[in-house]
Amino acid sequence: MTAALRSTGLPLFAGLPGDISVSFEFFPPKTEKMEEQLWSAITELAPLAPSFVSVTYGAGGSTRERTHATVARLVRETDLVPAAHLTCVGASKDEIAEIADQYWEAGVRHIVALRGDPPAQSGRFVAHPEGYGSAAELVAGLKARHDFDISVAAYPEVHPEALSTQADLDNLKRKIDAGASRAITQFFFSTDAYFRFLDKVLAAGITVPILPGIMPVTSFAAIRRMSGNTEIPAWLETLFEGLDERPGPRALVAAVAAADLCKRLYDGGVRDFHFYTLNKAEQTYAICQLLGLRPKENAA
């Protein structure tokens, strides 16, 4: 009887009014072909009128020039609001100040400030002798330089290097107190983990928006590699079983799985989503479509 009653209800994504805000993350391209893919994705997603689009920054500043070139082109050729990633790794305070000045002069007003991952060969973060020792210090330095709108990272399932859950939460509060306007979470697959994290955040007196970072599964091996402390539930692994060599079906399953996660977040009151696009538009666009978001005229 219960199943019969359930079957007469509305479909999972029916009737959603599209009352959500979205933002997208891209990475700077390494080759001409990758640049074509990036700008194809930007062109396809721009009509969804994201609140901002962020561009990542490689470990040790390895993509510094490409990040700046991508952000500068976004300013020149689109009406999108670009957010440039900036890290503490491998740079002095003076070098970071110079980069920040260049962004400000180019019209960039939004920075995603991160401590940053150490270069692969080192395995751990070591502050530059004349640089910032933490993301909180970086936020304070950037705010002292210019009145940037700053986003920072948050970890619903705790940063892998954190000494404890409380230490990780204290670090987030330091970043917010230093002047950050919002936090964007590491990707996750458990709505319970996200909502439990929000409870702790509010109890700590943090009231800025905490945007859930959504990562559609393009490669299960890559998700495992990037997960850190993020729990990968058994049901998710089962969903992707046998799809390693089937990119088409894998992309379809990934879009539905991510949209289901977003719908459960939506049912819990979330209205702002950040998507890690990996420079591919189709899955992210499909998820937004399922959530009721439709293109806006003249959004580009």
How are the secondary structure elements laid out?
Elements (H helix, E strand, L loop, with lengths): L1 H6 L13 E6 L5 H14 L7 E3 L8 H14 L4 E6 L5 H13 L4 E5 L20 H11 L3 E6 L10 H13 L4 E4 L5 H13 L6 E2 L1 E2 L5 H7 L7 H6 L7 H21 L4 E5 L5 H9 L10
Parallel strand pairs: 1-2, 1-9, 2-3, 3-4, 4-5, 5-6, 6-7, 8-9
Helix pairs in contact: 5-6, 10-11
- From the 3D coordinates, which CATH architecture would you assign? Alpha-Beta Barrel
CATH class: Alpha Beta
User: Can you give the mean pLDDT?
Assistant: 90
Number of distinct beta strands: 9
- SSE pattern: HEHEHEHEHEHEHEEHHHEH
Biggest sheet, in brief? 9 strands, parallel
Distance between the termini: 49 Å
Work out the count of structural domains.
1
Morphology: globular
Low-pLDDT runs of 5+ residues are 1-5
CATH topology group: TIM Barrel
Based on CA atoms alone, the radius of gyration comes out at 19 Å
Classification by helices and strands: alpha/beta
Helicity level:
40-55%
In which order are the strands of the major sheet placed?
7-6-5-4-3-2-1-9-8
Task: Please characterize this protein's 3D structure.
The protein has 300 residues and is of the alpha/beta class. It has a single domain (18-290), classed as TIM Barrel (Alpha-Beta Barrel). The chain contains 11 helices and 9 strands. It has helices at 2-7, 32-45, 64-77, 93-105, 135-145, 165-177, 191-203, 220-226, 234-239, 247-267, 282-290, and strands at 21-26, 53-55, 82-87, 110-114, 149-154, 182-185, 210-211, 213-214, 272-276. Strands 7-6-5-4-3-2-1-9-8 form a 9-stranded parallel sheet, with helices on one face. α5 (135-145) packs parallel to α6 (165-177). The longest helix is centred in the C-terminal third of the chain and has 21 residues, at 247-267. 38% of the residues are buried. The model is unreliable at 1-5 (pLDDT under 50).
